[in-house]
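Schema walk-through. Below, the input block comes first and the output block second. Nothing else is stored per chain. Lengths vary across the set, and this one has 668 residues.
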Amino acid sequence: MPSTASQGEIFDVVATLQNNGLAAATVSSVMLTFDSADGLVVGYWGGVVTINGLSTADFRFNVSVAGDARLSTRNAKLTIVAEDSNSKANISLVKNGVGAVTIQDLAQLDFFGGLAAPSSVSPYQTFVASYTVQNTAQGSAIVEGASLSFPGTTDLQVVPHAPVPTTIAGGGAATFSFDVTVASTAVPATYIASATVTAVDTNRGVDRSLSDGSLGSVTVVRPAAIMVNGLVFPRAVSQGQTVEMHWRVSNWGDATANISAVTATILPSQGLTVTLSPSNPITLAGGSDADFFATVAVAGDAEPTTRYPAEVKVTATDANSNRTTSDANVGNVGSFLMPGTASIGQTFGVIATVLNSGQAAANITTITLSFDNNVNLIVTPSAGNPTSIPGLGQADYSFSVRVGAGAQLGQRSARLSVLGSDGNSRSPFNLLLTGLGSVTIQVGGPLIFSSGLVAPASVSLGQPFVAQYTVLNNGSAVANLSAPTLDFGSGLHAAPRSSNRPTIAANSSETLVYDVTVDVTATTGTHSAAATVNATDANSGAFIGIQTSGLGSIVVQRAATVGGISAVSMPAVVSQGQSFTAAVEIGNSGEAVLNLSTVGLTFASPQGLAITASPSNPTSLASGITRTFSFNVVVGDTANPISRSAEVTVTGSDANSALPVTGSRTGA
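--- output ---
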């Protein structure tokens, strides 16, 4: 039997009875009861009836605990009614104190006290955050997992600080701790903590998990970053005199700066003793200023000469992260925006984002953009370029670059020259930043028509045809085309094909194809082709288009037509067994050539007549031409002696359009 059980739980009890005699015992009743039975319902659900001599047997019960059962310890007793199997003697007994169970309520978990963490933290800092969970009930809880997160940011990385507690006893509490690391690039803001504890009741296994999406918060502040400024020093001193110098130190971060070292140096130092004031601040709150003092004792034998404050330096650490406030470091470029190509005559822009990975500000004296071959690349910096870069910050520097007419074609690598000083120590730096990117200098155009019109020499009214011309880009820059056209004048309509490409690569050609339709009412004759290619340099946008009205020409003609079929010339009377020649004249009244497929001669009653066309008959008819077609006719010996009328049929096609052309004459 379990030692504890929760309200609402059902638990099992197994009672083992031992028969110490040799005779078997017949059990008629086994009852499990408790001294305080309210809220407990006992059910018997299995067991033997007979226990053999010197044997044992298990009797099983289930106990249901009401949801409102009184919370207390219940003592169990067993009542057994049995008899000796041989003598039938009564061997019943009552056994008290066979066990006890304590009824408990379910574990109840709650967050106690919210998030325990520093109120403010700095980038680079790792701190411990924790929360406490208390169990206000009697039942214990098994902890399956615990987490802490800061939704909405990846700048705070959390890992468990120590092994997670595995249980929380009734009436007890457990603390869950985590190590939180603040990213170096963390954005200053207040971040809300979310916590989840996954747990179950020890007795019943019921889920007792809890979570809180606003358990507390952590504020990330700007790290301490100090700057020395405003040095005050006498312009003239005398031998044997002691004078004071002082300077102001600013902490433009949010975190407190712990001052770890202060130095002041004057060069040449011969005869000068510099003593720092013992009352100089040892901390500097975020966003505050403080004055630092030193005395300068001038020896009686100090050489009369001009001396300069060579260096006044203050070193500090961030009170949160204990990280030293580092010097300015502008040796990296975050992004460098520049076109990959540019054409001669073009002006393009460049934006360089310069990073300061140090905590001290960087004072920028000049920043210059140049190229590995700078000839005729005229660089002008923006007048609004920043004069300083904050610690752990960045600044954008803009330039315009004019590509002059004599600029050498090809790839040019960019570089930045940065001249400035550390905002704290005033130590100068002169950096050359390379590997930033490159621009390829090109020349736009010119475009030329590298072919004339490619199209049929002649077309017929109503005929569609394909025409094309080729354009060569002689430049090293891509040419962007804008709706190039082909025009033949009234009655002819040229539509560009969708497959025509909108660009022409450098030193490449592009063939532009058009589908042309000819109106049936178009003017016949020669039509000259005119082409216009609107184009711009893909780099600079400069216009490099071309046009011509002498691309070529095409002749529009009236379609080929069978214009006339004469009467057939042949003898009026022939005899059986006779051969004779029949001839007919056929003309083309159109302007296009008429290609002939067949010219046939037949008779109304062909019986007994064999007709063969002359192999020398024409196969085509030019415009306005009439030609003679001959046939040999053999009259068979059995041909019926009757009058026969002749019929001529013509089939062919227009030589331009290939459309069919037919004609015929009966009774010829």
